[in-house]
Amino acid sequence: MLANPDQATVLDFQRHLHRWFAANHRPLPWRHSYEPYQVWIAEIMGQQTQMERVAEYFRRWLDRFPDAAAVAVAPEQALLKAWEGLGYYSRARNIQRAARLLVERHHGQIPADRDQLLALPGIGPYTAAAILSIAFNQPWPLVDANVERLFARLADIDRPLKETATRKRIHALAETLLHRDLPRDHNQALMELGALVCTPRRPDCPACPVQAHCTALRRDTVEFRPLPTARDKRIDIVMACVILCRGDRFFIQQRLADDIWGGLWEFPGGRLEENETPLAAARREVVEETGWQVERLEPLDTVIHHYTRYRVTLHAFIAALPADAGAARLTAAQQSAWVTAAQLADYPFPAGHRRLAQHLRRQLSGKTGTALTAKKTSRS
Ligand code: SF4
User: What's the gap in Å between 20 CA and the centre of ligand 1?
Assistant: First the structure.
């Protein structure tokens, strides 16, 4: 069993695992060549994102930015647009910072050296090990969330995964089981097995190639492994924003560079203050962020979006801005623009605002924003 494997067990485990991977791995696009730049991009995109979704984004990214040199010279807006929907936008910015260093120090190539990789923005020990093992076939063990769960069952670990001792134990097991001649296949096989067979709920044990080595299966504890941990409490955030229109144009602003969504575009708005209604917050935010007083706000839509531990409810209002309102005095943005509904698609937005922009394009389809506010006003 895998709790404390001897050499024969390790070899048998590897044989079954690799045979299964050869027959069952998904044909993900970076698996055609394992070109280091492609492996790097796929790894960064894959953080917090399902592989099928990564594959979609990866293809589009590669069409636009085929190598580090292309990323290094790309406008930041183009990168953010290509990343739009993946979230955690600092990852895209770090890719560009790293790409510039790659061009400067390594002729645009990904180095096959751990220290040199760790010197690049956005690359920590896990990503470095992923690039070294998957792109360069170097023997570094890899433990992602799928592998953690798999090992917790294989070794029937009855301690929380978050404990330092548990992590050490799992890393030691990963090191022991690693196939030193085939680290690329080995690491991917473990992750693939965790993703496709040893899934969080209802693992498919009868189809598992390493079931003979699974301690939890033998002890009938699979459903209790990994040990459930107290879930982090979800945090609810309520926000309001205003879509300001003038004829067929809509006002958008670009967030400040050091902001959490720095560089992305949005409709003016923000969080509700204590005991504030969404309508009052929307009106206040417009004044604070643009200097414009807007009297007549009509509810347009409410979108709910989930980010890891947060649930954001965004109340959107629409309002026509009088022609004599003057220029915006921006306090929370680096620049602004008046764009048509069709042009909204050219700008990168955070998820909630992107859904509003899509909603707006659908709802308008040929009408002007002013017509929309007039229609809503007449209904209320
Ligand atoms: Fe996971 Fe079941 Fe395989 Fe054990 S036998 S590793 S629980 S899929």
Answer: 13
Does the pLDDT of residue 380 top 60, yes or no?
no
Both 341 and 283 in one domain: the answer is yes
Give mean pLDDT, residues 164-188.
95
Same domain assignment for residues 215 and 241: no
Distance between CA atoms of 192 and 46, rounded to whole angstroms? Answer: 13
Distance CA 278, CA 296 (A): 14
- Residue 306 Cα to chain centre, angstroms: 12
Q: Does ligand 1 come within 6 angstroms of the Cβ of 212?
A: no
Assess whether pLDDT exceeds 60 at residue 283.
yes
Ligand 1 touching residue 217 (CB < 6 A)? yes
Do 64 and 99 reside in the same domain of the chain? yes
Helix (H) or strand (E) holding 11: helix 7-24
Q: Read off the pLDDT of each residue in 2-18 and give the average, rounded to a whole number.
A: 89
CB 76 within 8 A of CB 82: no
Count how many domains the chain has. Answer: 2
Residues 258 and 147 in one domain: no
Domain carrying residue 241? 235-379
Residue in 374, 362, 350 with CA at minimum distance from that of residue 239: 350
Whether residue 297 contacts residue 318, with contact meaning beta carbons closer than 8 Å, is answered with yes
Phi, psi (rounded to 5 degrees) for 307: -120, 130
| Residue with the larger pLDDT of the pair 139 and 380 | 139
First-to-final CA distance of the chain: 69
**CA dist., res. 190 & res. 170, Å (int):** 13
| Predicted model pTM | 0.81
- Domain-located, residue 230: no
CATH assignment at residue 330: 3.90.79.10
**Catalytic residue of the set 35, 43, 148, 288:** 43
